[in-house]
Every structure is written in structure tokens, then in C-alpha cells.
Amino acid sequence: MNKKASMTTLKAIIMVLIMVTTSTAGVDITDSRGRQVHFDTPPMRAISIVPSITEIICNLGAAESLAGVTYHSSLPCQKSHKPIVGGFSSPSVERIKALNPDVVFVSGFQEKTVEQLDALNIKTLCLDITSYDQGIQNIETLARIFNRGKNGKTLLAAMEEDMAVIAEKLAKLDGMERKRVFRLMGRDRVMTPTANAFLNQLVIRAGGVPMAPEGDGMVAEVSLEQWQKFNPQVIFGCGEDRKAAEKYFNRPGWKDVDAVKNNRILYFPCEMTCRVSTYTGYFVQWLAASIYNEAFFTPGNQVHPDELLTSEPIPIHQNLVKESRRVTSRIADFKQKTLVIDFTTPQEVLSTLEGFKTGITTVANHYLPPPAWNMPHGADLAPVISRILTTVKRDPASSALLMTGADMDHLTVTDKLYRDMTVTAVVTAGVCSNAQRASRSTGYCYEPGTINIILMTNMRLSHRAMTRAIISITEGKSAALADLDIRSTDDPLNLQATGTGTDNIIVVRGDGPPIDGAGGHTKMGELIAKAAYDGVKQAIFLQNGLLTRRNVFQRLKERNITLQTLAKDSDCQCCKTRPDSTMAGELETLLLMPEYAALVEQAFALSDAVERGQLNNLLAFSSTVKTMTEKIAGHPIEKITAFESTHFLPEPLEMIFNGLISGIAARHNMAM
To answer: Record keywords: Signal included (predicted)?
Structure first.
């Protein structure tokens, strides 16, 4: 053996010994409580009852190690089947125990749950966040625990890159005064993070000046005097923070600050605004671009040139396709992705965005990420389309482009075949921001498309067939949304969605044998509708993680129904006999049981039938609710109480939740 080979072998042996030593030694962690926690090996049956920790574990590539999560957790679509152990506030210790975890990740807010887990000798680890740096350290810690060091470094490098872009863009604005930004929190009161809270650090990194009042806790109530003195120029919140805005921002004094007068009130996903986690860099970009929307997109303030970064092939099996690729580019300083499909011969296309176009050699679908959403607003779309196509090295004159807010990593390619006919639908879809029900939802201004479909066949469609294909595609899409029970954004409680307000379609004419019909009674129309249906369902799964069968907590969330709201005027009855319990927690416990979850799911279906005017007699369901209520109570009851907190619900849902709450209250009163 030569000397070089010997050295290579020696290095390999040393690396193996190092890996074995590290594995044998295990990992020791001092958590937020000061507890020393030891791991001999990476956990294989971890339970996370902290959504931010769940997110980090998944993005480290360790989702397979999770044995259970809360229904508040956002999971990768492929892992959405994970067992639910309850919510963040009151997880079920019984369910946690039954899953036999090797560790449970907890929060300092879950003291009673931790005490119960300690009594069962179940290992817990608390990684609370007190600062931005602590959040970064938590990612590093979890990477060590799950032996995902390389993935951890990749995540942190991406976050650092996102932050660096914003720092560079803010440096370009040196002559501009920093804007006063108010993080709205609260439901019945106007509250904001105190000077101690890490949330202010995110505002500062986004270029804002936070209010940051002094206070002992992490959040403080804001007086009208403080509000007027600070005079916010931008207000942002998440989720039910809208309730405080609706209650206060039309009142004298509260409505007289710059942000309210100029309608600069923004809402972001709660999973981004309330934590330091793997998407924090992305959120800071989004927040900064929203605060300085016009200045950020002024050409003189651009930091990096528009450029193509990477490209990867996307297989599409149609003879007219020369090449198809997913291209990553940097445009207006933000990374964006485009599906680019090049044809072997120039094509005629029908685009719902641009109409009929001839001589087309490329069709494309472009993902415009939230930080870049202001790029096309208030401007003619033509220059924006030209800028995108030029950056990805395509000729705008011979291209047709769609734009979307759905990630291009989640596109689907669906083929349907019959004899010598092949239909291909390329779909991106997202339904959590602007889904609507046709004829019932209100129209607003332009936003990037949310369900985009590019249709190709191995036939040559006539103009008649191309236009009729639009209807077949739309019907297939709407059927998919109905079967998934996608809710309309402007009235999710009462309306199913039929699409989003910004859907677009491109139909490519093709080069094969002529086809003149694409309606529902033709084989071509059938294939088109089926391809659209399957493609939309799969794309929604990849983008939003939604399946036809999903847990009752998710479906309540989609309707903007919270257990805390439903239990608002009934907690005292439950707490009489169980000081450690709340009505919301009791409801959660019942809904973890399949029999009660199924009754709520029945109420969902009945509510939609009532709204459509298909059902006007609920006597049979009323009898079912009474039987359920008495079973929960453990004894007969004369009357189910009608609670004020359920009045906003459609009648079947109001009935079922009045029954659940009445049963819980009667059971506890019986024990007195």
C-alpha cells in the first residue's frame, strides 16, 4: 500500500472513531430551567408540545423522530398524519404517556403539564426563547440532540443570508427616518411586547422602531396616551389580534394615529410573528419589505443585480416540450422561483392573464414570495413580466407567464391517458389566503395568482376546444376544492370556496391530431377535468398540507373557531370542582375522542347544507345532541343551555357546542 493510500485509510479510521466516540458520549444539555438533560442517542420517539420546536425538528430533517405533536403545530405535508396529543395550553398527559416518548419538549408556560410528566418519570426538555440569540442557540441545540449538525448549519446560514439582505437594503435607506412600528397583541385590550421581549428584536432587524414599553412581563397593556404619543406609522399582528383592531381602531384617539389613518395595518401568519425559528429570516424580510414597500423596490435601492442562480430539470412527458426546468433567480434582491417550459415548435396559447397569444416558445409559472409581493403592485404588469422573463433568459415577446404566491417547489405534474390521447396538467395551488366562493365573495384588487394551471395535450386543440377546456379545468378545480372542504377566506364559517380570487390558466394548443371538443361529454374534456382535479388536490396538499381527512381541530381553525372563544362565558362552571381545568381544556379533551370529533364533523356538513338551503329540519340531529350531552354529563338533563359565546355559529354547530359545554358543566356540577 502506498503512503498516500495509507494516509487516506488512517484519516477514514480516525473519522469513524470520532463519530463512535461522539455517539457513545451522547449529548448533555442545560435547558431553560437549569436542568441537566442527557441523551445517549438521538431521540426516536420524541413528542413536541411546543409548535416552534416542532417546526425546527421538522426543518432539521428529523420529523420521523416525532411520535406526537399538538394540533397547533405546522408540519410538513408528508408528516401531517402525526398523532395529536392536544393543544399547547392543555395537552393530554394520558395521550403523551400512551405514546411512550423518550423525551417531551415543553415550554415554561406548561408548568402543570410538566409536573404531571415528572411524576410519571417522563424526560422533558424546555427550550424557551428570551432573545433572538437564544432562538438561534435552540436550533443549534436541537441539531446536536437529533444528530443533524449539517442540516442545522444549512438552516442557520440561510437565515443569516436573509437577514444580511435586509441589513444591506436598510443601509441604502440611510437618509430615510426609521418608521415607528407597533406589534399589536391582545383581544379585548391593545397590548404590545415590553422592552424585555425578543419580538422587538425582530422589528429592529426589519428596520422598525418598536414601542417597547417598560414592564415586568413580556407583554404590556397600552394606554390611549401612550398610543397617541408613539403614533405608530405601521401596525402588524397575527390571527385574533384583529379583534383588538376591530374593537379599538374606530374609536376617537385610537383611530387618529398615522398607521390607522393611512391603512397601514398588516397581518402575518402567527407561526412567523410569535417565535424565533427556522423561518425567522424569511419573516424579517417580509416585514421589512412591508414597512418600506415603496423604498425597497426603488431601483436605486437595489443591492444585488437581477440574476439567474440555479436550475434543475422537471420531467414533463409531452412531445411538444423541448425542456422544462425550475429556475431559482434573484430579482429585486429576493430569491424567486420559476417553472420554465420550452417548446419544440412555436405554439398558440390561451392565457386567462394575457388572452390568445401566438408564436409562443415558452410558458412559465413564477413564484413571487411574500417579501416581493409589492414588486408588481401599483404598476403595469407588463414591465414586471418582462423583468422576470429576462432574468430567467427567456424572450418576453415569445413567452406567456403566470404569477403565483404558491411555492414552485410544490408544483405537481399530472398525466391522464386514454388510448392515443395524453393530457398533462402542471399545477401550483395555495388556498389559505384568498380562497373565495363565486357569486358570494367580494372582489378586491389584483394579487399574484394562487391556483395556476398549465394544460398541454398531444393533440391539436381548435380554438373552440381551447376555450371549452377552460371550463373543464375550472370545473375540475372547483370539484377538488369542494371535496377538500376548502373554506372561503371572507366567510369561512358559512361558505365553501370554489376557487381563489386570482386563479389563472394557460391552455397550449398542441401539435397532434385535431380535436374540436373539450366539454364534459367528450373524452378530452373528461381527461382535462380529471387532470385538473388530481393536480389541484395534490398541489394543495404540498402547499398547505390539507387532505380530505384532517383532524377536527384543523377544520375548526379553518372556520376561525377557537375553543377559547366558545368557552368564554362558561369557564366558571367547570372550574368550580377542578381548579386546574378550563372549559376550553375540557372541550379539547372531548374532541380528542373520535366519537365526539365525528359529531362535530357531522355538524360541519349539516351547517353547509343549511346555508345552501338544502336542509331546514334539525330535529333528528337535536336528538343526537341531547343523547351526547347526557352521556357526557353522566345523567339525564332537562334542557341544553344556549350559551352566548356560541351564538355566532351556524345552527348545527351551535347545537353541538352548546351540548358539549352543557354536558361538561352538568358533569362537574353533579360532582359538587
So the answer is: yes
Helix, strand, coil % over all residues of the chain, rounded to 5? 45, 20, 35
The three cell numbers locating residue 472? 373543464
- What are the structural domains of the chain? 23-147 (3.40.50.1980), 180-301 (3.40.50.1980), 307-544 (3.60.70), 561-670 (no CATH)
Rounded Cα distance between 304 and 302, Å, is 6
Q: What is the C-alpha separation between 438 and 443, in angstroms, rounded?
A: 10
Query: What are the per-10-residue average pLDDT scores of the chain (672 residues)?
Result: 44 36 68 94 96 93 95 74 90 96 95 95 94 93 96 95 95 88 91 91 95 88 96 92 90 96 93 88 95 89 95 97 98 96 98 96 96 76 93 97 94 97 97 73 49 97 98 97 94 94 95 95 97 97 91 94 82 39 88 97 97 94 97 94 95 97 87 38
Return the H-helix or E-strand segment holding 390.
helix 381-391
Closest listed residue to residue 130, CA positions, set 236, 28, 276: 276
DSSP symbol at 256: G
Residue 143 C-alpha cell reads as 441539531
Q: List, in sequence order, the alpha helices (H) in 26-131.
A: 51-59, 93-98, 111-119
Task: Please state, in angstroms and rounded to a whole number, the distance separating the CA atoms of residues 41 and 53.
Answer: 19
